[in-house]
Amino acid sequence: MVETASAVLLVSVIIAGVLATGAGDTLNDGVRSAVCLVQGPACDETWVDELRPEEPEQAFLPLGIPPGGVQNEGNRQLGRQMALERGWDGAEWECLDNLWQRESGWNHEAENPSSGAYGIPQALPPDKLATAGSDWQSNPATQITWGLDYIEDRYTTPCQAWAFWLNPDDSVPGASTHWY
Questions:
Q1: Residue ranges of region Disordered (predicted)?
Q2: What is the DSSP annotation of 140-169?
């Protein structure tokens, strides 16, 4: 048992060392060059590149900023300022940011093609946003005001809205509405 644990530890240390030094890349390049000689994938591609499916249009990590960063940073900063005015900083800001990154990417012109939800908070029906201002279709501040009011009225805090978005029913493991 001790010998097995020692062997596993030794292999782990070796793998970590190979990854840290980039030796794996050198080995991969050597193998790829040899394979190219016997009609493997094109010499400027790796086996992984050859077999990789096309990237989806938009992919999000489970939490935090989507790959490629925030495309609507001005709207996001405005939202942060407006959330701070309500006392929603720290964890509450993180929850709001996560929620609206998933809903719209902070894009005030975002429209869900299947539901018709619109704007930064993805209001449905979209004209609900008019209760915050007649410029609801073009003004990020109007949309953010409506969204913050909605969250406060329905969930009390952004973290409670985010928790609902992630998993509204604890009795069903993995259940999620992905709406709030």
A1: 107-138
A2: HHHHHHHHHHHHHHHHSSHHHHHHHHH-S-
